[in-house]
């Protein structure tokens, strides 16, 4: 299994850990300290050695920040984790704060007015510290960079840094040679008038050099840094223990290799009297300080790999389609299986285990083995489905009982693509309320699927389309509608998103999720998710402008038993029927026996639903 089901967190030691942290801060002359959920690479998935926020508070979510002062402590998280943070954290120690309603830049200057607040400059970006510093100045507070994280000094059993094996990512999956990518990125430095650029995002390094790793859960990344030069060979800073002979041979024509411990000194040497490109939204603020101390000039520029990585090439797109067919067959086999189980006979863990086994089996059948899951499966029955990023463990495992809705959000990592799909299904007979809310969510998902939009349209512009049916019913959901998805890389990829913060233009070749939802606390959750590919702009008869659209990549039935047809327009019904016809035609050759029969019944036109 790629997922374990041990308890996700433990806050029993938080009181003593906070006490020791406060003692260390007092000795250092600090009034408080910021503890982000971050590592030196600012990644979503971090190694155990960097899980400082979880160690201190018990909170295991992928986004959050703690602020520890001498007399109070707070933990900020967004709407995805409203329920989770209260369940995992000792709220007598840490006051939960909504980072949406009160972002850290608004909360910190009030909570820490006139105080000296420490931070680890390796765990915050340049842009973040700039914003926080400006905010603190309004109330007389001061941010103090701390060399040597004070949590590390008291974390006696801190895990060792990862040494996961890395591998070459073949060009038949990458779709483009690494030398070509690196040359194109060097041209970006010329445009930015930078002599060199610092690459700190392991996903960008993986994409640029056509390599993959195993240093963090569920995402095939090798933790590393790189210096990309306008003229001259790049240098890759990576633990040599991660490289086998095949990978060394692959990298030899592309870059020089150095140990990670040499990175700071190398940045100082590189920066002396030169212009160094840094992405202020991705790179640690420590790097900007190193450049300035060495007499260099910081050139603020976007990570030169980020946008090309997001715009998939033809090889990556074909790989994504193949991965979705394979994954769709496995998910459909699961849906057929769960439909045949008696209510109460399967638990959330049992469902997650079955789905992973089917993915592994389908991958072997199709000659493209399951490399990993792309995130911990969210398998939420009844009230657990209302926890947006619920992670089932042996303490919370629930049976799928009659009358429940079961929300299953899962994904896989194959060499040719990364998948992410959510389906919600009834266990037994759903209530009318459940069906109505599901239909509202489905209407939002179809609105995104059928959207046509001009060049330069951003995700923020499309986000309301997914919400309008829910808004008209007085409902909403507290997460984005869609995130970018990598190619055998991170399941959450920027800069593209469909959300209230989605400011990047959606360009042809980008892959995003389309996943509106609805959550009734203590009762049930609903989410429907497909991945979509931004298609090139094409003329529309009678129109004035060519328009982009979406190709739906994900292939698996949407449960018709939860739909109220009378709430849908003829156009929405036509889309659903056409989607189901495509699902049936594509997946039928991959299925047999009872699975094939189930697929045929599940994809009949909506008017034929019984």
UniProtKB/TrEMBL annotation:
Domain spans labelled Peptidase M24: 319-535
Origin: domain of life: Bacteria
EC number, UniProt record: 3.4.11.9
Coiled-coil regions listed: none
Enzyme class: hydrolase
Domain Creatinase N-terminal intervals: 17-148
Gene3D superfamilies referenced in this protein's UniProt entry, alphabetically: Creatinase/methionine aminopeptidase superfamily, Creatinase/prolidase N-terminal domain
CDD domains (alphabetical): APP (cd01085)
GO cellular component: cytoplasm
InterPro entries from the UniProt entry: Creatin/AminoP/Spt16_N, Creatinase/aminopeptidase-like, Creatinase_N, Pept_M24, Pept_M24B, Peptidase_M24_C, X-Pro_aminopeptidase_P
Pfam families: Creatinase_N, Creatinase_N_2, Peptidase_M24, Peptidase_M24_C
Keywords: Aminopeptidase, Hydrolase, Manganese, Metal-binding, Protease
Gene Ontology terms, MF aspect: metal ion binding; metalloaminopeptidase activity
Protein's UniProt keywords contain Metal-binding: yes
Electron transport among keywords: no
Domain Peptidase M24 C-terminal residues, every copy: 547-606
UniProt record similarity statement: Belongs to the peptidase M24B family.
The protein's name: Xaa-Pro aminopeptidase
